[in-house]
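We modelled the chain as a single entity of 269 amino acids. Its sequence is:
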Amino acid sequence: MNRAAQTPVLSVRKLTVELQLDDTRIRAVDGIDFDLHAGETLALVGESGSGKSKTAEAIMGLVDPARGVVTAECIRLGDVDLHRLAEPELRRVRGRDLSMVFQEPMTALDPVFTCGEQLAVQFRRHRGHDRRRARRAAAEMLEQIGFPDPAAIMRSYPHQLSGGMRQRVIVAMAMSCRPRVLIADEPTTALDVTTQARVLAQLTALAGEAGTALLLITHDLGVVAQYCERALVMRQGRLVEDAAVADLFRAPRSPYSAELIAMSRGVHA
């Protein structure tokens, strides 16, 4: 069945984010619309400052209300409009049905708890496991994501692991409840090329096995070409193109998309 004919798992309509910076109000996201379907890997592409991360934060309900205002016709996850939920209700959805992998794992992991404790709490909070069952599920998740010695990772504190290992723990946490939608915001920016490839391969494989829709935020068009089916191109808070990845690279409709592709190939447009 064509995905265009399916009901989207995530629908975003007229999403706007305005930020207050001193005496200036900036429109970081300007009325964007898009759909994401079950099992799809969708790229959100653009230069730094284009509004990609603010889009993710708005969907997750993480924009600080003291610094920004989010408006939307809807941010619908299945039958639930996230934009209409109060924070306690939204907190129950986050981690269970909607998860996020952030750029910097050291800010996403709590330095005073072991990785095992932090992963196990996801199973206790969202799946109702008792402590023993949650720790067993956490170890199994770490094994699934490719750690040869899950018990050692369970005992480790974040500072005892490499950047790539920390990011893989974050991916395990994000996928622990097999969410309907996973947002990955530049998940490999701080990693070396080999580790980037490993983390992205494991991330997309886990999402594919779970049927999780993946919104992958990146500035790297090589990543888009390798892992994504469709791409949204964002510039100055607006979507300038929505295309299948093959079509985007073959015949971009937006001059800005063409410029990004040319730069990614080392060609000055």
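As a brief sanity check on the tokenised model: The chain has a mean pLDDT of 91. The chain has one domain: 3-112+157-264.
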